[in-house]
Design brief:
By secondary structure, this protein is α/β, with parallel strands linked by helices. The chain contains 11 helices and 7 strands.
Length: 371
């Protein structure tokens, strides 16, 4: 049993080598290309505040408030989340005329995450703390599909745009030039993805249930689906990435076999699927569930026609590159020039789509209370 567990951890860590975001502060880094994710965090903030308020109403905060941000990546969004939590607690303490707790914030991501850039931003964060607030920040490298923290030590777990990533791609599926579920995918493709997500999310809940105190909360935001039928609501942005990779096959830059063997390790759940998994796992009560949309290009307004399709296509391709580049390079063994060309093709396909139809992500945020 121990050897099996060690082998499982090793496999997760090996996959993690290509699941990290682009490092550093360069043009294509996640730090420079994650304003969409920041907008999602902002839109989910009312649910976060509601969860913390309910924790506060059920009793006083502990002297030290322990929180974890799972899948933190690097760049400004991580400490932005920690800052949001502290401001919410500070406001509640002011309302109740009670003493502000100290904070212990754990920043978690896979070991190849750019923790160095993240840690360099911490001294300035400490300098900007106000009113005598104390926060102690630690890195916690590892997969959130494994145990990370001691038993019953966390009051709050936050994770945004991370839990739709699977621990692994479904194996042995044939998907007709597509890297994800499409309108033409065979039923077994969807079932394989759904089964992997159910397994992963159930395991995630079970692991966190051991680490969160009774009455503690967990807030998770996914890219999800607005309708039950996965073929009726497909991820157009991934269809367009498939088209871009097909372009490279036609030009002899990658092999067809390489495309056929690439299955995107991602799943966009429907709300009822989430409810069912939470209920069956049994460790948490579903306290709140909200659905909201954001444009692919977060700078865009909500008019029917994209304000500048070509500019938006380039912007969305850059955002996606910050997330996907390491994964694609690992699988296809791209050189830098081919990576540049792939995302030029991707920007073109995105722009053509945006000329006709607005692109939006459906987001699901859930608040869970530990029983």
């Amino acid at each position: 049993m121990g050897q099996q567990k060690d082998r499982g951890v090793a496999e997760v860590m090996a996959r993690g080598k290509f699941l990290h975001m682009n490092a550093g502060n360069g043009e294509c880094s996640y730090a420079r290309s994650s304003t969409l994710q920041r907008m999602v965090i902002l839109k989910a903030k009312p649910v976060l505040e509601d969860a913390i308020r309910k924790m506060f109403n059920s009793g006083e905060f502990p002297k030290c408030f322990n929180m974890a941000d799972l899948g933190c990546s690097s760049g400004p969004n991580t400490l932005f989340t920690v800052s949001n939590v502290m401001k919410i607690v500070q406001r509640l303490c002011h309302e109740k005329s009670c003493k502000m707790p100290e904070f212990q914030a754990y920043l978690n991501d896979l070991p190849d995450n750019d923790f160095n850039t993240l840690f360099k931003s911490i001294p300035l964060f400490y300098q900007n703390l106000k009113d005598g607030a104390n926060c102690f920040i630690s890195g916690m490298p590892g997969s959130f599909y494994e145990r990370l923290f001691p038993t019953k030590t966390l009051q709050l777990v936050h994770s945004s745009y991370s839990l739709h990533w699977l621990s692994q791609s479904p194996e042995k599926i044939e998907n007709n030039n597509s890297i994800y579920i499409t309108r033409t995918s065979p039923p077994q493709v969807f079932e394989a993805y759904k089964k992997q997500f159910e397994k992963d999310f159930s395991r995630f809940l079970q692991l966190r249930s051991e680490e969160i105190v009774t009455g503690g909360h967990m807030l998770i935001t996914f890219i999800g689906r607005s309708i039950p039928d996965p073929h009726g609501y497909h991820c157009v942005h991934l269809d367009l990435l498939s088209e871009s990779l097909i372009d490279l096959v036609h030009e002899g830059l990658i092999e067809q076999a390489e495309l056929d063997s690439f299955n995107y390790p991602f799943y966009s759940p429907y709300k009822d699927e989430l409810k069912k998994i939470v209920e069956m796992e049994g460790s948490f009560d579903l306290d709140n569930l909200e659905i909201f949309q954001v444009n692919w290009d977060e700078r865009d307004n909500d008019d029917d026609i994209c304000f500048d399709a070509y500019s938006s296509g380039k912007h969305v391709a850059k955002t996606m590159r910050a997330v996907l580049e390491q994964m694609l390079v690992s699988h296809f063994q791209f050189g830098e020039s081919i990576v540049d060309y792939l995302f030029e093709r991707y920007a073109y396909h995105l722009a053509c789509h945006l000329l006709v139809q607005k692109g939006k992500f459906c987001n699901i945020v859930i608040s869970l209370r530990k029983k």
